[in-house]
Amino acid sequence: MDRPTLISDKWRAGYAAERLAEFTARCRARGLAITPQRVAVMRVLVNSGDHPRAEAVFAKVRREYPNISLATVHRTLETLCAIGEARKVTPLHDSARYDGNTAPHHHVVCVRCRKIRDIEMPEFSDLLHGRQTLGGFQLLGCSVEVHALCRECRSAAAKEA
Amino acid sequence: MDRPTLISDKWRAGYAAERLAEFTARCRARGLAITPQRVAVMRVLVNSGDHPRAEAVFAKVRREYPNISLATVHRTLETLCAIGEARKVTPLHDSARYDGNTAPHHHVVCVRCRKIRDIEMPEFSDLLHGRQTLGGFQLLGCSVEVHALCRECRSAAAKEA
DNA sequence: TAGCGGATGATAATAATTATCATCCACGAT
DNA sequence: ATCGTGGATGATAATTATTATCATCCGCTA
Ligand SMILES: [Mn+2]
Ligand SMILES: [Mn+2]
Ligand SMILES: [Zn+2]
Ligand SMILES: [Zn+2]
Question: Taking CA atoms, what residue in B is nearest to A57?
């Protein structure tokens, strides 16, 4: 079996059922109320293999709860991320960041202050090297974000605690 | 020398000078007018090692051209990306995308329709394995985006041409 | 079942980016 | 060097995504 490989929809279906089964228990453990809206957002999200945006989740949940607010969907998605039940595919940036360095390279990003530094890591691109396609996708390149805490933020975080 | 490694400011300085030297020539070759604003935005960007956002570039260019518009900075940055003189560090997403799959995995993203699919690629994380820090940064994890063209977009793109 | 506190819906506010458009000016042609 | 034109700019409005506010609601515990 050659890597990398696409994760199958079949795997996702079983995974979704498993995650949903204990979801209310994990909410309770966290002291979060089990509201029908929260459960619905979670169910829609975990059954989606397409990494939907808030608007798309809203559209689906709305079919079952026509009165749900878009704000609730936004809030709930952020809550799910905060408790580790979901993740953002586009984290660490709230507005576009530009780079004058067009040489191939990757980035370390501080998760706290969002400082970004260039890193040299040719091994990353090597992993895709030689491969033209992946499950129907024609490969063009890749970008890596290493998540980290910078020195300043480490001392700041230490002081807070 | 162990990889990955931070790219030094020293390297960046020389690189900036080199890039600026031929910038106007490359603009001319592309049929783009050489305006003082465009050159200033390019100069500020290529001399920045911190991946600034539009607002930050605006603030610096403004010192020299107090009348420059923020819109011009936005436009110019996008132009620079379009002609390959710069890149966005946060590309391929214009709004947040959420993921119910919390298992460690990475993503292929279609650069045209922005379809996102999960991929299995444990070798990526292995590259950082065992390493705790990198140039002052404490490492926490990493996310990889493989840029690609999906099947549908490939045929669509073929039709257009 | 009563009551508290978190959750929600409606809406306003904010922030980033893009669109519009009149004016301007870089540049090739004269 | 001057001119004419199309692209570039500045000012501003519009759009889009997200977050904040707040009155009401309802899940949860006692
Ligand atoms: Mn960079
Ligand atoms: Mn995913
Ligand atoms: Zn930091
Ligand atoms: Zn596509």
Answer: B98
pTM above 0.90? no
Is pLDDT of A81 > 60? yes
Residues 72-131 of A with CB under 8 A from B: 77, 80-81, 84-91, 93, 95-103, 105-108, 110-111, 115-124, 127-128
Q: Sorting pLDDT into bands at 50, 70 and 90, what band is B121?
A: confident
The CA-CA-CA angle for residues B124, A119, B44, to 5°, reads: 140
pLDDT band for position B103 (cuts 50, 70, 90): confident
Residue owning tokens 């709305």 = A62
Distance in Å, residue A105 CA to nucleotide C17 C1': 27
User: Is the pLDDT at A10 greater than 70, yes or no?
Assistant: yes
3-class secondary structure, A110: strand
- Tell me how close the Cα of A36 comes to any Cα of chain B, in angstroms: 18
* DSSP code string of B63-89: HH-TT--HHHHHHHHHHHHHTTS-EES
Alpha carbon A88 to chain centroid, angstroms? 3
Q: Which residues of A touch B93 (CB under 8 A)?
A: 89-90
Taking a contact as any Cβ pair under 8 Å apart, which residues of chain A between 28 and 47 contact chain B? 42, 45-47
Domain ranges of chain B: 1-161
Strand B5-6 to strand B106-110: parallel, antiparallel, or no bridges (unpaired)? unpaired
Asked if the model's pLDDT at residue A1 lies above 60, the reply is: no
Going B122 to A83 to A90 to A50, the CA torsion angle's sign is: positive
Top-level class of domain A1-161 = mainly alpha
